[in-house]
Amino acid sequence: MKNxxxxxxxxxxxxxxxxxxxxxxxxxxxxxxxxxxxxxxFDIDQSKIDALRQGRTYIEHIxxxxxxxxxxxxxxxxxxxxxxxxxxxxxICVPTPLNRYREPDxxxxxxxxxxxxxxxxxxxxxSLESTTYPGTTEEELLPRIESxxxxxxxxxxxxxxxxxxxxxxTDFSTRTIPKICGGHTAACxxxxxxxxxxAIDTVVPxxxxxxxxxxxxxxxxxxxxxxxxxxxxxIVADRMNIDIHEVISAAATKPFGFxxxxxxxxxxxxxxxxxxxxxxxxxxxxxxxTRFIELAGEINSSMPDYVIEKVxxxxxxxxxxxxxxxxxxxxxxxxxxxDDMRESPSVVLMEKxxxxxxxxxxxxxxxxxxxxxxxxxxxxxxxxxxASEIGRYDxxxxxxxxxxxxxxxxxxxxxxxxxxRGRYRQAAGNLVKA
Length: 434
Known about the structure:
Number of domains: 2
Oligomer: single chain
Largest sheet: 8 strands, mixed
Helix content: 25-40%
Radius of gyration: 24 Å
């Protein structure tokens, strides 16, 4: 069974099923179509299926022309999960958020697997790409597959291969970012390597699904901890009247032993604010308290409150209180030059300002209308940044520093600017650094 599946994958006669067509699944789908596979895309969101069938993109950095080119090839998209039996490979790319108690929420993964299980058959490989704690693949997916009466490693194959997408990063693509792959058995790993080897330039094998799961967490915890460090350094530097961005730039001239990280108003994106909590939760099962990781999480989580205090101080300079003030938030995507709103600290800032009685508006060239979100609600559209419009607000808060903003005009026309991203190097006049 293994050799037959590997041969189908290598010869590109296999049908690839991508389950979850968001920021991870859609680029992967397009890549498999591009290299010549027949691909079936699955999603529960009918609006995404409709858009893809019409050749329209719903992710800014993926052009509609790329969707149209794929649609003219071997691509089908559907909400019908019964078609999973047609696929030789099923790759799951669904969210793994936290619940209200900051604990792992696997409902999207388990709901997806439960929808696929009735349609599994011998000769398939199932790969999970969603970031999760070590043991998820073995503890949650394996028994569900075995409940179908299928032997993993002989009849069907199970792997974990964590996504490494970086939306908007033009230096790396789905093809060029090395792929980690761990199998439940040696045969599973062989199939996983064949699955990804045809679409990704470099596939890196590891000894188990658990090792692959922990690899992804380490990558993002590494970033979270270092961002927590530099956020704390920002607060110290600010109290000492030192520009932390000048310090980072100077330190980065050292050709060894230093990697620059940059402070901000909090953590955003679907990985860094969430993934550390997956490990800290699982570590408690082993009687461990991950103090270092949790401390970094506390610092990063506190940054929106630090920014709010800076906004309050900035408004005091112009003899205004927060209540009743008009505040314009620049940039509501979680990082610059993308439309990705997941876990954006800008939204947290907007909610805190609204709770304090401010009248909040936003401008973001990448997000023309505030989207529907699971936990946040604003009935707002992006405002155009004319000189007169900027001057209407008591405070302009630079939350995400998109390149398309005219920063000279903003500083010239604003009553006061609060900069959380170090876009302005001189804190003077109407500028407050946060």
